[in-house]
Amino acid sequence: IPLLLLLKHSKTQQLNPPPGPPKLPIIGNMHQLGHSRHRSLSNLSKKYGPAMVLQLGRVPFLVVSSAETAKEVLKTQDLNFCTRPAVLTLKRLSYDFLDVAFSPHSEYWREMRKIFALELMGAKRVHSFGPIRGEEVANMVDSISKSCSSPMRPVNLTEELFSLTARVICRTAFGKSYHGKEFDRGKFLEGVYEAMAIMGSFSASDFFPSSWAASAVDVITGLRGRLERCFLSFDKFYQRVIDEHLERAESKGEHGQEEDIIDVLVGIMKRDESSPIHITADHIKALLMNIFMAGMSTSAVAMVWTMTELARKPELMKKAQDEIRGKVGNKGKVEESDLEQLLYLKMVVKESLRLHPPGALLPPRECVNHCKVNGYDISPGTRVVVNVWAIGTNPEHWENPEEFWPERFENSSIDYRGQHFELLPFGAGRRICPGITMGMLNVELAIANLLYCFEWKLPSGMNVEDIDMEEGTGIALRKKSPLFLVPSKFNCSSMGVS
Ligand code: HEM
């Protein structure tokens, strides 16, 4: 035994772990995370480097803060880092990891991801949901137009944009005719926010795995109870919607409407004998959880930050409006087919995603095999967090990184689809977001119509410096306080096409 201990000791001595701040007993570096995790971690990385290690409770975390190191982890060694840790809160909400987003890397995940990326989020399917996006954006424009009748009345744009994405995603997932009973629209949205708050909250069991004391802490803080209530209300609701879709499929076969996401999944469930995975109601529920949690607030958060940055720079807003109005002319609305030619608008959205990535820290990955990153040894079981916000504002990659300056992309090929590691709002590698096309269509169409249909001013007495840029807490990096702006209707009929 002493010989074995000696061997083990000499082996650990040879390891070269990444640098990191000194840690306290038991909690490690937890006290250094602060209110704004991406900013605290970014500050620490300025001292300890782009690959630094932190100990949170019993769990070691590798924090990545430069494009080069992100490329190493997300591309060169992706296979070693593309599993997700088995986090307890996510286990319940993902039906024991039957989903895509939190399921560990395995043959099962590959099959489910294929279904998600090709059958639910493939280009053809996403475009088939175009009429839903168009109608719901028009409803938002109508709702805002009503406010224009009282001059200088501010509109809560945060509320309008969250409600827009909720309507689009609900209709895409559940279909046009669906009206909830247990979970009406307002309550459903509350449920989604509660689930996201739970996912973003501190669970002692995740940092002290297999500890009875940590489980007790989660019971005492009420986290376990909240999680169970949240899970049960979603479960009951999803079951009813799935049953309705099954009945509809039995009774009518073809019902003549455009297929919604549950129709597609119910179809796979029925034809599925030869497929490697037998899809059940629980698989459908787990995927619905992903669609609501990963798809809804990310798009809305991106829209709010884009309008906030434009409100702070009226000259850029005017430039974007001139482009849109010049290209779209007097059609009365921007359609999805117009978006391709709105190059400045695309740069504006890209710049907003650089400065305010909704996923400021990528969802954690876990190292599977011992390996080296930047010459440092990384042990299996180490969780890996990529600080997308720190990379997007790293002065080594970006000129004047704090400035909102869409023109920086004018002669640049940098794009957000996982090939340019200085810009990672959708992540990269095998785990890259499979909802990019749908997310970007939601964001660009909404912003284009807001800019085309209205002139926007700040509420009276307010200056651009007064716009509150504080970030909220939670799983998506949202603007903390709602954005209020004053709209006035723009006369689109006066426009010609340039
Ligand atoms: C602007 C909108 C969106 C943003 C900024 C965004 C961002 C992200 C990010 C950063 C990740 C993690 C990627 C990684 O770990 O490397 C992710 C994963 C994911 N996203 Fe999105 N997303 C958006 C829209 C959507 C939409 C509309 C859907 C589907 C309806 C979706 C579904 C997913 C799923 C299922 C995953 C997990 C992928 C996996 O682990 O294999 N996202 N997203």
From TrEMBL:
CDD domains: CYP71-like. Gene3D superfamilies: Cytochrome P450. Its cofactor is heme. GO terms for molecular function: heme binding; iron ion binding; monooxygenase activity; oxidoreductase activity, acting on paired donors, with incorporation or reduction of molecular oxygen. The keyword Transmembrane applies. Keywords: Heme, Iron, Membrane, Metal-binding, Monooxygenase, Oxidoreductase, Signal, Transmembrane, Transmembrane helix. InterPro entries: Cyt_P450 (IPR001128), Cyt_P450_CS (IPR017972), Cyt_P450_E_grp-I (IPR002401), Cyt_P450_sf (IPR036396). It comes from the Eukaryota. Pfam families: p450. Heme binds at residue 433. The chain crosses the membrane at residues 287-308. GO terms for biological process: secondary metabolite biosynthetic process. Belongs to the cytochrome P450 family. This is Cytochrome P450. The lineage of its organism: Eukaryota, Viridiplantae, Streptophyta, Embryophyta, Tracheophyta.
